[in-house]
Write a structure and sequence with these properties.
Largest sheet: 6 strands, antiparallel
CATH superfamily: Jelly Rolls
Shape: globular
Number of strands: 22
Bound molecules: 1-hydroxynaphthalene-2-carboxylic acid
CATH class: Mainly Beta
Number of domains: 1
Structural class: alpha+beta
Radius of gyration: 23 Å
Strand content: 25-35%
Strand order of the largest sheet: 1-19-16-21-14-13
Distance between the termini: 64 Å
Length: 349
């Protein structure tokens, strides 16, 4: 008597083998192989009022020290909650959280092989020390922690809040994540960086190994946006800038690109889609982003996600004021793997 397929399947199972004839890869509703990419990442808006009040409460309840290295609140994507192990993320590749550091606090130094950045949103005067270089923070400043750079934060000023962006979900999915504390808790500032005026612009001290500057001052970013205000800009993103990598002039990180874009009063961008995902923060102004035909409203301070391959366009809600979005996306990862794709929507849309 010949074997049934079920019997064969059982025998294969015991030998750690599997026949693909039963697989849902090809033709079930849950199939993996589809013409368009599928993602579990969902569009989502996080209101600034919710983020800020959670952080303020955490500021009263949660002290730094011991097990608590950072007081930071994650933007959890609702679509990823059901994923075990890698559910802690804003998109499948990027983790964004908002951190509060109170006056008198010191957040100990550590380093990891995932990249990170800070984008300052409220308060000024705190600092972060990256590989011994001290960067004082003001709203709109972007400060990079490239992979394996030591970093700790201190505050002798007023309460400060910033966005933390990290590519740790990506590195975790590759199962190569590493993290280590700084021996001695807080990395001291190097002698050469002890003055309050640090290097500015595209210069570096020759006697240090340091790469280009790891901080982008908001005053420079904003001036550039304003200088380009009358240009055509990108049809899909308005006056959009990328923060260039100080080491090679390319994307901000090997894995992530950070950007700042200005939507001019009344500006509505053309629809397009790409297989990178983006996390936005409304730094100034308010507007509406249409994602796959649904409108998501945002006002100053809100954060939101545009998932990969979703059709999207942005609109500045004001006819008088500009709107400025800070963003981070994983396009560099897709490009590095030669997987990046984008498509414009129909003209006039
Ligand atoms: C981290 O190291 C920081 O250094 C902030 O301030 C947020 C979220 C997940 C993993 C590491 C920081 C983080 C983080």
């Amino acid at each position: 008597m010949s074997k049934s397929i079920q019997q064969l399947d059982q025998e294969l199972e015991q030998k750690n083998l599997q026949g693909l004839w039963n697989e849902e890869l090809w033709n079930s509703d849950a199939r993996l192989f589809t013409k368009d990419p599928k993602t579990m990442v969902q569009p989502c808006v996080w209101k600034w009022a919710d983020i800020e009040s959670s952080l303020r409460e955490a500021g009263d309840l949660v002290g730094l020290g011991g097990k608590v290295e950072r007081r930071t609140v994650r933007l959890q994507n609702p679509g990823l909650k059901q994923l075990k192990g890698q559910k802690h993320a804003t998109t499948h590749t990027i983790h964004m959280s908002v951190q509060l550091l109170k006056p008198g606090e010191l957040a100990s130094s550590h380093r990891h092989n995932f990249g990170a950045f800070r984008f300052v949103v409220r308060g000024r005067g705190a600092y972060t020390v990256v590989d011994g270089e001290q960067f004082f923070m003001e709203p709109g400043d972007l400060i990079l922690n490239p992979p394996m750079t030591w970093h700790g934060h201190g505050n002798e000023s007023e309460p400060i809040m910033w966005l933390d962006g990290l590519d740790y979900p990506l590195v975790l999915s590759l199962q190569v994540l590493t993290w280590e504390p700084f021996p001695g808790d807080f990395q001291p500032v190097k002698e050469s960086y002890k003055s309050t005026v640090h290097r500015l612009g595209m210069v570096r001290p020759l006697w240090e190994k340091a790469a280009g500057p790891l901080a982008y001052k908001w005053s420079d970013t904003y001036r550039t946006l304003k200088n380009l205000e009358a240009s055509d800009g990108s049809p899909f993103d308005g006056v959009a800038l990328e923060f260039v990598n100080p080491a090679d002039g390319g994307h901000t990180f090997t894995t992530m690109a950070c950007g700042a874009q200005m939507l001019r009063p009344g500006e509505i961008t053309r629809t397009h889609r790409h297989n990178s995902s983006t996390i936005y923060h409304a730094f100034r102004g308010g507007g509406v982003t249409t994602i796959d035909g649904k409108k998501y409203e945002w006002s100053e301070g809100d954060c939101f996600v545009v998932p990969l391959w979703s059709w999207h366009s942005h609109q500045n809600a004001s006819k008088k004021e500009e709107a400025i979005l800070f963003s981070v996306n994983d396009q560099p990862t897709l490009e590095a793997l030669k997987l990046y794709r984008e498509e414009p929507g129909e003209a006039g849309k």
